[in-house]
Amino acid sequence: KITMQKRSSIQPRQTKASMLRQQGQQQGQQTSRPSSVAPSTPRPTATTGTTNKINSKAQASEGIRAFMATQRAVAAQRKKTIEKEDQEKTSRPRIRVMTGTNRYSNDDNDPFGMDTNKSNLKLETLIRQAKSSGKLNLSNRNLDRVPEEVLSMYHVDPNKIVVDFSSTDDAWYDSTELNKLIVAYNSITEIDERLGQEFGALTLLDFRNNQLENLPTSLSQLQHLTVLHLSHNQIQEFPEQIFKLGRLRDLDLSHNQLDVLPEAIERLSHLEILNLNDNQIKKVADSIGQLIKLRKLYLNQNQLVQLPQAYHLQNWKKLEELHLVKNQLRVLFVQDDSGRTIELPSLSRLDIRQNNLSQITEREQQTIASLPKLKELLISMNQLSQESIGLSQLLLKTPSVQTLDLSSNLFSEIPDAILTLEDLQRLDVSANHLRHLRNDLGKLEHLMVLTWEGNPLRSAPRNISMPELIESLRVKMVSDREEQEAHAEDDPDHQENPADLTTTVATKDTTQQQQRQEEQQQTTTLVRASGTLDLSRKQLSDIENNMLTGTPATLQLHHNVFETIPKEINDHSLASTLVTLNLDHNRIKTLSLTTKDATMVFKSLSRLSLSNNRITTLFTSFEEDALLVFPQLTELNVSMNALTSLPENLRDYLPRLRTLKANTNRIDKIIPQTLEGLEMIDLGNNDIGQLPPEIGRIGTIRELILYGNRFRIPRPTVLDQGTGAVLEFLRRRLGD
């Protein structure tokens, strides 16, 4: 009798599965009967402190035991087979089973490709990759011919093919036909005739930078070819084979030795890009105009004397870029007797630099070409002037031009037609014969870059940035317009131009509307810890009392629309504390140095800046009861205005003045008494024709800037030596 005891609470209960595992382990140790195993009873399980036997009827079925035994026998046999194969591998070399992609080589000494030469393997790798991608790049490999392996890369001997379906390699029937072949930067002198026969699916063929003199006749068989690059070779005649490539879209024959472009070029009806740069072409066939799909034409650095007559080019509706740099063109457009006008609606870039152009058309009053979408017009380094025939007509037909390069020509005046280019952003007039820059260039609202260096300007801009130069032109333009309007009002016979009147009214309405919007907004003032009140860039035309807070020493009012110095400043307590007043970039027209109104006197003001305004005169009164507006002023800046003269006795109205800056004005005469008592004087970029020697005797002058004026004495070499040299030169002229 077996006595059952209570199991320990910490020992898990034995399951049927665990009992089966124990039986399987016991049976696995019995190797005498692998195919059948007799049933056995499980051993009793011992518990802590007591040995008890446990009877169980749970056991594996006969089918399970037979299955497990069979699996163990198969595993043992597989292990023996693997060990035998390993021994055979070490005793003899492995013979490869070749598939369709691993083609037999043409080398009888190595029919199975067992040679491990690294260069051959690299070429074979490229060929293998090309068969899957369709692109083969053999650039920079020092080749003198196309390798034989490439020409025969698709050759297959049907008697030697061994097909292995278990191979992971691509089979010969999965190969991709070669469609791109690049053999650039080599030393190939001749292309094998088999090229066109073997690779009929090519769409791109690139033999740049080789030593080719001609092309194989089989090239004409490449009827799918769309891109052909043959630049930097030694081709002397235009290859006839190319004309048979009806689908060609991109042809590059630049840097060869071609001397003519034949009439047969019209057969390339799908051509979009034609590059013939750096050849010796003297004549272009008229039939080039039949390339109706042409988008880009490059004829730089050839020997062209003229282009085909204009009417031959009327089919270039899709032409976007025309490059004719460094030729010998004398006329751009050659017209026939019909006088027809052609339109190139898509042309955006016209580059005709470095030619012999002295005129655009052959006859006066001819309008040959209309270029409505032209963005870049580059005609530098020619012989054009403002009087060149056809130039104005060309500019009037290019309303969308954004970049205009007229540098290194013979212009003495900037053509009027330039002012019609409303979208112009960059204008280059450097290295011409210009004597001055037109103020009405300021009407070109989008102008950002104006290059003028290399001209004999009487008032050359110096020490100012490009935006400041353009802004000064606009200020002067407005001043000129106002003067003309004033003269027109005095002339009873003057009649307004309706277009100008409309423009003026529209401008005024826009300005007033903008001012009203700004006035409706809450104006915020900023009094800085340094004692500065900043009211700049707020489109202010007057000042309200609530805007003036505190007692700052500096008041910033620049970039507003003031037409006079605000009198509200003196109505506030600022009149007794204000030291610096900045009114740059406003619309002030007159600066009064005397007044009869005591409220307009700035008792403490020491520095006043009025640059970039519209000031034409410094008003003074000789009346006895006149008061000085700026009795304590020591520094005055009136640069970039429209002043034509300075008061003769300036120190009588500005008794403490030490620094005068009047750069970029129109001052044409200077009187020594005007500069008495001044220490720093800037009169550069004016129109001063003569420099009085008496200025050399003014002992207070410490710095004198006079560049950019008309006078020739002293010479620029003296001016470059500084103030001391200039004053010494003037004193020597007086005999001192």
UniProtKB/TrEMBL annotation:
Residues 1-21 have a biased composition (Polar residues). Residues 22-51 have a biased composition (Low complexity). Pfam families: LRR_1, LRR_8. Residues 1-58, 71-92, 479-499 are annotated as: Disordered. The keyword Repeat applies. Keywords: Leucine-rich repeat, Repeat. InterPro entries: Leu-rich_rpt, Leu-rich_rpt_typical-subtyp, LRR_dom_sf, LRR_domain-containing. Residues 80-91, 479-497 have a biased composition (Basic and acidic residues). GO terms for cellular component: cytoplasm. This is Leucine-rich repeat-containing protein 40. It comes from Circinella minor. The lineage of its organism: Eukaryota, Fungi, Fungi incertae sedis, Mucoromycota, Mucoromycotina.
